[in-house]
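G., the chain you wanted modeled:
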Amino acid sequence: MKEKEKIRKKIRDLLPYGKWRIYEAMNYTPLAGGKHLRAMIILRGAKDLGISDEIATDVAAAVELFHSGTLIHDDMPEIDNASTRRGQPALHKVYGEGAALLAGDGLFFLSFKIMSKYPKLFKEFTEAAYDVLIGEAMDVELEELDNFSENDIYEMYEKKTGALFGFAFSAPAIFVDNGKWEALKKTGRRFGLAFQTFDDIKDVIGDSKLMGKDTGLDVRKKTLVKILGLEKAQHMAEKIYEEVLEELRRMEMKNVLRFLEEVKELVRKG
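Predicted structure as tokens:
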């Protein structure tokens, strides 16, 4: 079974099923597909460090469930007011805003329940999740601010997007108590900065049909694209991506390195 298929099967196995509509709503976004970048990074890192496939897939699926919860909340009218996600109507368009709020919360709690089986990872996961929340709040608050700095944007990106990538990069090393984990966490957060910048670029010039989600939603948002301009932001993201690859090469994380080399065009263009 291919890696993505393993992740999707594990997600299906972990999701709740029953007669209540909340279960159906919780299944909607996680089962709609997605790139599974964070999960794949965990699986490849586990290969590099000799962690069992069963444990790695469990952790990877938990991260994807958490990520799906953030997407559900992002799409709601109070945040991005998006109408599509992963090529289908956003969850709140199908189930209503109340169900979307609760489904997102449910996926958060489910991911914590799964991750609690792994005490070595649990603290780092909770800290990453908290940073994601703060980053999302900063993103919303920055929309209303006239007085802000470029560093505010970097900090917001590092938390909102970088925190979960930091966990994905470092989780296998934390699990084996490998001394590389702090450096991998830092590298993952740097990768998140490049990823978010590419995402903001795609919001300006991307094709919503190809990407499977709305574009042009960042009109009100404070982004590096607006501050640096399209060309400089693109150059910065490319540079960071290459630096991340070099760090992985230096740390001999060969499987993660190969994966990020393979998906670079997908990250850049969707």
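The mean pLDDT is 93.

Shout if anything looks off.
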